[in-house]
Specification:
This protein has about 475 residues and is of the alpha+beta class. The chain is built from 14 helices and 20 strands. The strands form 4 sheets. Strands 9, 10, 11, 12, 13, 14, 15, 16, 17, 18, 19 and 20 form a 12-stranded mixed β-sheet that branches. A 4-stranded antiparallel β-sheet has the order 3-8-5-6. A two-stranded antiparallel sheet has the order 1-2.
Amino acid sequence: MVLLLMSYKPSISLFRSDFTRNIIILRNVALRALNYTSSTAASASNNEPWTFIKTNWKYKVIQMYKLDNDEFESCYESLPKLLHRLYPSRFRSASQARKACHLGEVIRFRTNEDRLIEQCEEYLDDNDFTNLGELGGFYNIVLCSSSSTVMKDDIIAIRSRANHTGSIYPTASVGYIDPPPNMIISGSEVELIYEDDLLCLVNKPDLLTTVGEKRNDLQSMLPFIMQPPSKQYWQSTKAPPLPRPVHRLDKKTSGLVLVAKTKESMSRLSQNFSSRQVKKSYAALVFGRPQRSNIEATRSDNCDSWNTIDYPIDGKASISLWRSVCSIDTVEFGQLTLLLCRPKTGRYHQIRRHLAYCLGTAIVGDSKYDEGGGKERTARPLGMFLCSNAIEFKYPTNDWKRVLSTKTVATSFTSFAEYAAVGLLGTTCNEDVTMVNYENGDGFVHLRAKIPLSEKFRTMLDK
């Protein structure tokens, strides 16, 4: 039996080989996400193999093997040992075969008709596939693990990612041939805002950890949505370095994350953050309406009046600028206010703590710092309404004319504060990443990017 999971996100196939507890949990989560009824879910028996299938991620089979009876030393034999014994030219050791299984390159499937093997081989000579189910006539398709066993007449296929849109990160470097489960099951959308050979900007959705959850965080997804840098930027190594986020957003915070693609750009961009040369803007929807009278009002960046919060966090100086964008009255949550915030320092949960402790207006959905009253608890299931909507940083090399993507547009001369506020409540941005020329004489330029607020914000503001 095959379970078809529909999604509009980049896609792959994931097959079950062992009826483990974790995989059963993943299946149940996927069924609930698709609103399957309990009777439909019950019909998917644990004794039947099943498949997660999506539609855009392409693979190719580079070798296929039909296992005959005389190839077995015993009735059952571990797959890595068998692969090494039968195909030593490709798998020089059982350890190498075991690694191929760990990477997800080895698939086992079965058929009762020999003619399908020939048809399959002819098809795969000229075509790539999303899942082996599209070949027709096969059953019991399984993604093999190192502990899998095989039997007579099993068919073993070695797959790899197909390359149609440019170079891809090597499977051996990434550690897996398939994207993380978050991209497969939940369809977590990580939008690529800008990319060149040195860096990229992505729009992280909320409820996704930036770094720290192996195979289930933003860092694990990056090699599957980006292209590696050109060879000239990693000549000293055998494989391109994997992309790494330069900074982090809280799991519940959405918005722009800057990613480095080379060691040199990682070093220089990290230094920019350490020296506070990076400008960031956050949009926050808070309960109530902050009162300016209790906060020092300042005027900066040739923009509207900004309010300053200068209050230490954990014994360290912490400064945040904020201003109101709009206020609304709702039946369920009372008065809500949309704020723009610009942290001048980078303390732990700085914006969340400043807004809650200094202004008395906690962010909607912030279960850690709201007061836990009736409306606060009601809003928590909606998620936290905090988004990193704009960023400006110094490009990591002065050779920007050769490296910068042609996606950059005309030079901007507006202040960052004004730039971050324009188009905040729109549905799309009318411009791509913008280059900002500063007459500082060091040969570097600055890049800035912004995103509109997500549908979650717009829905709440329309109430």
